[in-house]
Amino acid sequence: MFERCLEVRLPADLTNREYAALAHAICGLLHASGIGEVSAVRLDDRIGDVEMNAEFDVLAALNPWSRR
Predict the structure, then answer these.
(1) What is the pLDDT of residue 55?
(2) Is residue 58 within 8 Å of 46, Cβ to Cβ?
(3) What is the pLDDT at residue 24?
(4) Which of 21, 20, 22 lies closest to 8 in space, CA to CA?
């Protein structure tokens, strides 16, 4: 299904909040460019779903692209 890939390498010492902020920003850019619904962002295994969702919820409330 996916034909293009963009890999981003990050420092190992990022906090969960920094990691989530970057992931959230990337999702926002995908949506702003019109391809958010047909794209996927893969996360590493250093942050669990509960932690990622909690950080995402905090960040989503602060960003205009999250409001519909």
Answers:
(1) 85
(2) no
(3) 83
(4) 22
